[in-house]
Specification:
Elements (H helix, E strand, L loop, with lengths): L1 H17 L1 H5 L1 H15 L5 H9 L2 H32 L1 H19 L1 H14 L4 H18 L8 H10 L10 H24 L18 H24 L1 H6 L6 H7 L8 H8 L6 H14 L8 H10 L3 H27 L2
Helix pairs in contact: 1-3, 3-11, 4-11, 5-6, 5-7, 5-11, 6-7, 6-8, 6-10, 7-8, 7-16, 8-10, 8-16, 8-17, 9-11, 9-14, 11-14, 13-15, 14-15, 15-17
Amino acid sequence: MFVGLAIILAVVLFVPFFVKKVEEELEIFLFVMGCVAVTITSQWGKSLITEALIEPIKITLAVLIAGFLFKALQKPIARHVNQIADTIGLKLFTFFIIILLGLLSSVITAIIAALVLVEIITSLTLDRKHEIVFVVLACFAIGLGAALTPIGEPLSTIVISKLKEGPYFADFFFLWKQLWKYIIPGVLAVGILSMILMPDKRQKKHGLEEDREEDVKGILVRAAKVYLFVLALVFLGKGFKPIVDAYISHIPYQGLYWINMISAILDNATLAAAEIGPSLGLLQIKAALLGLLISGGMLIPGNIPNIIAAGKLKIKSSEWAKFGVPVGLVIMASYFFLLMAVAAP
Protein backbone atom coordinates (compact mmCIF):
# COMPACT_ATOMS: atom_id res chain seq x y z
CA MET A 1 0.00 0.00 0.00
CA PHE A 2 2.69 2.50 1.01
CA VAL A 3 4.66 1.87 -2.20
CA GLY A 4 1.55 2.53 -4.28
CA LEU A 5 0.78 5.73 -2.36
CA ALA A 6 4.38 6.90 -2.73
CA ILE A 7 4.15 6.41 -6.51
CA ILE A 8 0.84 8.29 -6.64
CA LEU A 9 2.32 11.12 -4.57
CA ALA A 10 5.30 11.43 -6.91
CA VAL A 11 3.02 11.40 -9.96
CA VAL A 12 0.70 14.03 -8.44
CA LEU A 13 3.55 16.35 -7.49
CA PHE A 14 5.76 16.16 -10.55
CA VAL A 15 3.77 15.12 -13.65
CA PRO A 16 1.82 18.42 -13.85
CA PHE A 17 5.11 20.30 -13.73
CA PHE A 18 6.55 18.43 -16.74
CA VAL A 19 3.46 17.59 -18.83
CA LYS A 20 1.67 20.69 -20.13
CA LYS A 21 -1.56 18.86 -21.02
CA VAL A 22 -1.86 17.58 -17.45
CA GLU A 23 -1.19 21.08 -16.10
CA GLU A 24 -4.00 22.44 -18.29
CA GLU A 25 -6.45 19.76 -17.09
CA LEU A 26 -5.15 19.60 -13.52
CA GLU A 27 -8.57 19.20 -11.88
CA ILE A 28 -9.43 16.06 -13.85
CA PHE A 29 -5.95 14.63 -13.32
CA LEU A 30 -6.10 15.14 -9.54
CA PHE A 31 -9.61 13.68 -9.41
CA VAL A 32 -8.40 10.47 -11.09
CA MET A 33 -5.33 10.27 -8.83
CA GLY A 34 -7.50 10.87 -5.76
CA CYS A 35 -9.83 8.03 -6.76
CA VAL A 36 -6.85 5.72 -7.24
CA ALA A 37 -5.41 6.67 -3.82
CA VAL A 38 -8.72 5.99 -2.07
CA THR A 39 -9.04 2.67 -3.91
CA ILE A 40 -5.54 1.53 -2.91
CA THR A 41 -6.26 2.30 0.74
CA SER A 42 -9.77 0.75 0.62
CA GLN A 43 -11.46 3.84 2.03
CA TRP A 44 -14.46 4.16 -0.26
CA GLY A 45 -17.74 4.72 1.55
CA LYS A 46 -20.89 6.79 1.59
CA SER A 47 -19.49 9.25 4.15
CA LEU A 48 -16.40 10.00 2.03
CA ILE A 49 -18.44 10.56 -1.14
CA THR A 50 -20.85 12.82 0.77
CA GLU A 51 -17.95 14.79 2.22
CA ALA A 52 -16.29 15.16 -1.19
CA LEU A 53 -19.51 16.47 -2.74
CA ILE A 54 -20.30 18.91 0.08
CA GLU A 55 -16.88 20.36 0.99
CA PRO A 56 -16.35 22.34 -2.26
CA ILE A 57 -19.76 24.06 -2.16
CA LYS A 58 -18.84 27.06 0.04
CA ILE A 59 -15.71 28.09 -1.83
CA THR A 60 -17.42 27.45 -5.19
CA LEU A 61 -20.32 29.72 -4.26
CA ALA A 62 -17.86 32.35 -3.02
CA VAL A 63 -15.97 32.24 -6.32
CA LEU A 64 -19.22 32.41 -8.30
CA ILE A 65 -20.80 35.30 -6.37
CA ALA A 66 -17.58 37.30 -6.14
CA GLY A 67 -16.97 36.66 -9.86
CA PHE A 68 -20.28 38.24 -10.88
CA LEU A 69 -19.72 41.10 -8.42
CA PHE A 70 -16.29 41.73 -9.90
CA LYS A 71 -17.72 41.71 -13.43
CA ALA A 72 -20.22 44.41 -12.41
CA LEU A 73 -17.48 46.54 -10.82
CA GLN A 74 -14.79 45.92 -13.46
CA LYS A 75 -15.33 49.13 -15.45
CA PRO A 76 -15.76 51.44 -12.42
CA ILE A 77 -12.50 50.07 -11.02
CA ALA A 78 -10.72 50.76 -14.29
CA ARG A 79 -12.06 54.32 -14.52
CA HIS A 80 -10.82 55.45 -11.10
CA VAL A 81 -7.46 53.69 -10.65
CA ASN A 82 -5.18 56.45 -11.92
CA GLN A 83 -7.28 59.19 -10.31
CA ILE A 84 -6.95 57.58 -6.87
CA ALA A 85 -3.24 56.89 -7.38
CA ASP A 86 -2.62 60.54 -8.22
CA THR A 87 -4.72 61.80 -5.32
CA ILE A 88 -3.04 59.82 -2.52
CA GLY A 89 0.29 59.19 -4.22
CA LEU A 90 1.55 56.01 -5.86
CA LYS A 91 3.37 54.70 -2.77
CA LEU A 92 0.29 54.92 -0.54
CA PHE A 93 -1.87 53.58 -3.36
CA THR A 94 0.17 50.40 -3.72
CA PHE A 95 0.32 49.98 0.07
CA PHE A 96 -3.45 50.21 0.50
CA ILE A 97 -4.24 48.01 -2.52
CA ILE A 98 -1.89 45.26 -1.31
CA ILE A 99 -3.28 45.39 2.24
CA LEU A 100 -6.87 45.51 1.01
CA LEU A 101 -6.51 42.61 -1.44
CA GLY A 102 -4.44 40.59 1.02
CA LEU A 103 -7.03 40.81 3.79
CA LEU A 104 -10.16 40.69 1.61
CA SER A 105 -8.92 37.62 -0.25
CA SER A 106 -10.12 35.45 2.62
CA VAL A 107 -13.67 36.68 1.89
CA ILE A 108 -13.78 37.34 -1.87
CA THR A 109 -11.36 34.43 -2.57
CA ALA A 110 -7.79 34.57 -3.83
CA ILE A 111 -9.06 34.10 -7.39
CA ILE A 112 -11.21 37.22 -7.42
CA ALA A 113 -8.56 39.22 -5.54
CA ALA A 114 -6.10 38.29 -8.31
CA LEU A 115 -8.59 39.38 -10.98
CA VAL A 116 -9.09 42.73 -9.24
CA LEU A 117 -5.31 43.12 -9.14
CA VAL A 118 -5.10 42.38 -12.87
CA GLU A 119 -7.73 45.05 -13.60
CA ILE A 120 -5.88 47.61 -11.48
CA ILE A 121 -2.54 46.86 -13.14
CA THR A 122 -4.10 47.01 -16.63
CA SER A 123 -5.54 50.46 -15.90
CA LEU A 124 -2.49 51.85 -14.09
CA THR A 125 -0.01 53.82 -16.18
CA LEU A 126 3.32 52.60 -14.84
CA ASP A 127 6.41 51.01 -16.35
CA ARG A 128 6.59 47.21 -16.69
CA LYS A 129 9.39 46.74 -14.15
CA HIS A 130 7.53 48.42 -11.29
CA GLU A 131 4.22 46.83 -12.26
CA ILE A 132 5.80 43.37 -11.96
CA VAL A 133 7.10 44.28 -8.50
CA PHE A 134 3.58 45.44 -7.58
CA VAL A 135 2.00 42.22 -8.90
CA VAL A 136 4.46 39.88 -7.16
CA LEU A 137 4.12 41.62 -3.80
CA ALA A 138 0.33 41.72 -4.08
CA CYS A 139 0.24 38.00 -4.87
CA PHE A 140 2.39 37.27 -1.81
CA ALA A 141 -0.18 39.19 0.27
CA ILE A 142 -3.17 37.53 -1.39
CA GLY A 143 -1.65 34.07 -0.97
CA LEU A 144 -1.11 34.72 2.73
CA GLY A 145 -4.43 36.41 3.48
CA ALA A 146 -6.61 33.92 1.62
CA ALA A 147 -5.59 31.17 4.04
CA LEU A 148 -7.47 32.76 6.94
CA THR A 149 -10.85 31.24 6.00
CA PRO A 150 -11.90 28.04 4.20
CA ILE A 151 -13.51 30.06 1.38
CA GLY A 152 -10.33 32.00 0.65
CA GLU A 153 -8.55 29.37 -1.41
CA PRO A 154 -8.52 25.58 -1.97
CA LEU A 155 -5.58 25.11 0.43
CA SER A 156 -7.55 26.43 3.40
CA THR A 157 -10.67 24.52 2.32
CA ILE A 158 -8.84 21.20 2.30
CA VAL A 159 -7.01 21.90 5.59
CA ILE A 160 -10.29 22.55 7.40
CA SER A 161 -11.77 19.43 5.82
CA LYS A 162 -8.88 17.28 7.04
CA LEU A 163 -8.87 18.72 10.58
CA LYS A 164 -12.60 18.96 11.24
CA GLU A 165 -12.60 15.86 13.44
CA GLY A 166 -10.62 15.23 16.64
CA PRO A 167 -8.35 16.35 18.10
CA TYR A 168 -8.74 19.77 16.43
CA PHE A 169 -12.42 19.89 15.44
CA ALA A 170 -11.57 22.70 13.03
CA ASP A 171 -14.41 25.11 12.29
CA PHE A 172 -14.72 28.06 9.90
CA PHE A 173 -12.46 30.26 12.08
CA PHE A 174 -9.84 27.65 12.97
CA LEU A 175 -7.17 28.97 10.59
CA TRP A 176 -7.92 32.56 11.57
CA LYS A 177 -7.37 31.74 15.23
CA GLN A 178 -4.15 29.83 14.55
CA LEU A 179 -2.53 32.02 11.88
CA TRP A 180 -3.75 35.62 12.11
CA LYS A 181 -0.81 36.71 14.30
CA TYR A 182 1.58 35.46 11.60
CA ILE A 183 -0.35 36.42 8.47
CA ILE A 184 -1.59 39.94 9.19
CA PRO A 185 1.90 41.28 10.09
CA GLY A 186 3.20 39.55 6.96
CA VAL A 187 0.62 41.25 4.75
CA LEU A 188 1.44 44.61 6.37
CA ALA A 189 5.18 44.03 5.85
CA VAL A 190 4.64 43.29 2.16
CA GLY A 191 2.59 46.48 1.85
CA ILE A 192 5.34 48.52 3.51
CA LEU A 193 7.93 46.97 1.18
CA SER A 194 5.85 48.11 -1.80
CA MET A 195 6.02 51.71 -0.53
CA ILE A 196 9.80 51.46 -0.39
CA LEU A 197 10.17 50.02 -3.89
CA MET A 198 7.54 52.00 -5.80
CA PRO A 199 8.45 55.33 -7.49
CA ASP A 200 6.90 58.56 -6.21
CA LYS A 201 4.74 59.13 -9.29
CA ARG A 202 3.22 57.24 -12.18
CA GLN A 203 4.84 57.28 -15.60
CA LYS A 204 2.69 58.33 -18.52
CA LYS A 205 2.93 54.95 -20.20
CA HIS A 206 1.35 51.52 -19.95
CA GLY A 207 3.29 48.46 -18.84
CA LEU A 208 1.31 45.25 -18.38
CA GLU A 209 -2.12 44.75 -19.91
CA GLU A 210 -4.84 42.13 -19.43
CA ASP A 211 -5.26 39.72 -22.32
CA ARG A 212 -9.09 39.64 -22.19
CA GLU A 213 -12.00 40.84 -20.07
CA GLU A 214 -14.19 38.74 -17.80
CA ASP A 215 -17.30 37.13 -19.27
CA VAL A 216 -20.13 34.99 -17.88
CA LYS A 217 -18.78 31.81 -19.44
CA GLY A 218 -15.39 32.36 -17.83
CA ILE A 219 -16.98 32.89 -14.41
CA LEU A 220 -19.02 29.67 -14.65
CA VAL A 221 -16.13 27.57 -15.95
CA ARG A 222 -13.82 28.87 -13.21
CA ALA A 223 -16.37 28.01 -10.50
CA ALA A 224 -16.82 24.50 -11.92
CA LYS A 225 -13.05 23.97 -11.96
CA VAL A 226 -12.75 25.11 -8.34
CA TYR A 227 -15.48 22.65 -7.32
CA LEU A 228 -13.77 19.73 -9.08
CA PHE A 229 -10.36 20.77 -7.75
CA VAL A 230 -11.47 20.76 -4.10
CA LEU A 231 -13.43 17.53 -4.59
CA ALA A 232 -10.26 15.92 -5.96
CA LEU A 233 -8.24 17.23 -3.00
CA VAL A 234 -10.68 15.65 -0.55
CA PHE A 235 -10.08 12.27 -2.18
CA LEU A 236 -6.32 12.83 -2.25
CA GLY A 237 -6.26 13.91 1.38
CA LYS A 238 -8.17 10.81 2.44
CA GLY A 239 -6.00 8.55 0.32
CA PHE A 240 -2.74 9.98 1.68
CA LYS A 241 -3.82 9.74 5.34
CA PRO A 242 -1.77 6.56 5.99
CA ILE A 243 1.40 8.32 4.76
CA VAL A 244 0.67 11.35 6.94
CA ASP A 245 0.12 9.17 10.01
CA ALA A 246 3.11 6.88 9.43
CA TYR A 247 5.76 9.28 8.15
CA ILE A 248 4.95 12.99 7.88
CA SER A 249 3.70 13.26 11.47
CA HIS A 250 7.22 12.33 12.65
CA ILE A 251 9.00 15.12 10.73
CA PRO A 252 9.93 18.02 13.08
CA TYR A 253 8.26 21.36 12.39
CA GLN A 254 11.55 22.85 11.16
CA GLY A 255 11.80 20.15 8.51
CA LEU A 256 8.20 20.58 7.38
CA TYR A 257 8.72 24.32 7.08
CA TRP A 258 11.76 24.15 4.80
CA ILE A 259 10.65 21.07 2.86
CA ASN A 260 7.61 23.07 1.80
CA MET A 261 9.77 25.43 -0.23
CA ILE A 262 8.87 22.93 -2.95
CA SER A 263 5.58 24.85 -3.04
CA ALA A 264 7.40 27.43 -5.17
CA ILE A 265 7.10 25.06 -8.13
CA LEU A 266 4.16 22.87 -7.09
CA ASP A 267 0.60 23.83 -6.20
CA ASN A 268 0.38 24.43 -2.44
CA ALA A 269 -3.18 23.11 -2.10
CA THR A 270 -2.09 19.72 -3.46
CA LEU A 271 0.82 19.65 -1.03
CA ALA A 272 -1.51 20.53 1.84
CA ALA A 273 -3.74 17.60 0.89
CA ALA A 274 -0.71 15.29 1.02
CA GLU A 275 0.80 16.63 4.26
CA ILE A 276 -1.78 17.94 6.70
CA GLY A 277 -3.65 15.61 9.02
CA PRO A 278 -4.93 15.32 12.60
CA SER A 279 -1.88 13.25 13.60
CA LEU A 280 0.33 16.36 13.25
CA GLY A 281 0.94 18.64 16.23
CA LEU A 282 -0.28 22.23 16.13
CA LEU A 283 3.23 23.65 15.66
CA GLN A 284 3.85 21.20 12.80
CA ILE A 285 0.61 22.33 11.13
CA LYS A 286 1.49 26.01 11.50
CA ALA A 287 5.02 25.49 10.20
CA ALA A 288 3.88 23.40 7.25
CA LEU A 289 1.18 25.91 6.26
CA LEU A 290 3.42 28.96 6.59
CA GLY A 291 6.10 27.24 4.52
CA LEU A 292 3.53 26.48 1.82
CA LEU A 293 1.97 29.95 1.85
CA ILE A 294 5.20 31.94 1.74
CA SER A 295 7.16 29.87 -0.76
CA GLY A 296 4.03 29.64 -2.93
CA GLY A 297 4.58 33.28 -3.87
CA MET A 298 8.15 32.83 -5.10
CA LEU A 299 7.41 31.39 -8.55
CA ILE A 300 4.37 31.47 -10.85
CA PRO A 301 3.22 27.83 -10.31
CA GLY A 302 3.21 28.19 -6.52
CA ASN A 303 -0.34 29.38 -6.00
CA ILE A 304 -3.55 30.42 -7.74
CA PRO A 305 -3.17 34.24 -7.67
CA ASN A 306 0.30 33.97 -9.25
CA ILE A 307 -1.01 31.78 -12.06
CA ILE A 308 -3.98 34.04 -12.76
CA ALA A 309 -2.06 37.33 -12.64
CA ALA A 310 0.95 36.11 -14.62
CA GLY A 311 -1.25 34.42 -17.23
CA LYS A 312 -3.53 37.39 -17.83
CA LEU A 313 -0.73 39.97 -17.75
CA LYS A 314 1.75 37.82 -19.71
CA ILE A 315 4.49 37.97 -17.09
CA LYS A 316 7.37 35.62 -17.87
CA SER A 317 8.61 33.06 -15.33
CA SER A 318 12.07 34.64 -15.34
CA GLU A 319 10.62 38.10 -14.65
CA TRP A 320 8.64 36.76 -11.70
CA ALA A 321 11.53 34.73 -10.28
CA LYS A 322 13.99 37.61 -10.49
CA PHE A 323 12.06 39.46 -7.81
CA GLY A 324 9.89 36.76 -6.20
CA VAL A 325 12.68 34.36 -5.19
CA PRO A 326 14.89 36.78 -3.20
CA VAL A 327 11.88 38.39 -1.50
CA GLY A 328 10.44 34.97 -0.69
CA LEU A 329 13.73 33.76 0.80
CA VAL A 330 13.92 36.80 3.08
CA ILE A 331 10.33 36.25 4.24
CA MET A 332 10.95 32.51 4.74
CA ALA A 333 14.01 33.20 6.89
CA SER A 334 12.17 35.84 8.93
CA TYR A 335 9.23 33.55 9.65
CA PHE A 336 11.53 30.66 10.54
CA PHE A 337 13.13 32.68 13.32
CA LEU A 338 9.65 33.74 14.44
CA LEU A 339 8.56 30.10 14.63
CA MET A 340 11.69 29.21 16.57
CA ALA A 341 10.95 32.00 19.05
CA VAL A 342 7.35 30.83 19.47
CA ALA A 343 8.46 27.22 19.99
CA ALA A 344 11.12 28.11 22.55
CA PRO A 345 10.18 27.11 26.12
